[in-house]
Amino acid sequence: MSSLPPDFGKPPDLSPPPALATDYAHCGELVRAQDRDRFLSALFAPPEKRQELFALYAYNVEIARVRDVVREALPGEVRLQWWRELIEGHGRGDVGSHPVASALLDTVVRLGLPRGALLNLIEARVFDLYDDPMPSLNDLEGYAGETASALLQLSAHILAGGARPDLAEACGHGGVAMALTGLLRALPFHAARGQCFIPLDVLARHGSSRDEVIARKPTPGLMAALAELRNHAARHLAAAEQALVDLPAGLGPAFLPLSLVPGDLKSLARVRDPFRTVGGLSPLRRQWLLWRAARRFRSRTR
């Protein structure tokens, strides 16, 4: 009689414990409410992968909205430090009482997500707590790389069941395209609270300044600086699309939000006063474009 266990040779069960089901469900609802584009994109992923994507995206929501829930930078630093210690493995307090933290840690442990990338996302978001201007276009690309690009890379890791270093170029360019477009859409909101994500070197190149951004003056120089950023985002998008030509269909859901960038950029280009109008596609149009992009990815398997 064999002494081998009955499950010998079977792949390990990577599904989350049933006790975490409510935590993952909470993540899904949070992403649905706060990050609709990524929520809809995740719905095109296999059912067994969606909850891990929701945990990752909910973590991003929690980090990205720290500035919105605190009045001063110091409490924001404290919140980010709590997440930093959690990711490093020596968090304080009952993690089980925080559904996003609980689901995220479960995903990190089971799927081997790189903690360094999650920590870098926190470090990048420290910038959000203060009103310092973005110094240069290189700094802005670095910020995008640690945020939007990292999320693309981590999403691909979840869908692939492991790291995909071969997608670094696509994630890098795609993240910059998405981040720049998102920041341009959020210009009215950021300017109203004293933040300037338009790089100082880009503003200076067109005879504009941070003061014009904060004063919400759509001068010719500022409009030219915004046009440069739109063109820069379009170039990164083209590079990302080229790098994704041979992307396996199963990894498509990670990159679906890229399909929204062209429409958002066209909408932003038509805005005459970027401080009074929030440019971008309508919710219904966004949903349709995501569905169409998902169909294109799925057709690769036929």
Automatic annotation (TrEMBL):
Q: Which domain of life is it from?
A: Bacteria
A Pfam family (short name) is SQS_PSY
* MF terms (GO), sorted A to Z: transferase activity, transferring alkyl or aryl (other than methyl) groups
What InterPro entries does this protein map onto?
Answer: Isoprenoid_synthase_dom_sf, Squ/phyt_synthse
This protein is called Phytoene synthase
What is the source species? Answer: Azorhizobium oxalatiphilum
Q: What is the lineage of its organism?
A: Bacteria, Pseudomonadati, Pseudomonadota, Alphaproteobacteria, Hyphomicrobiales
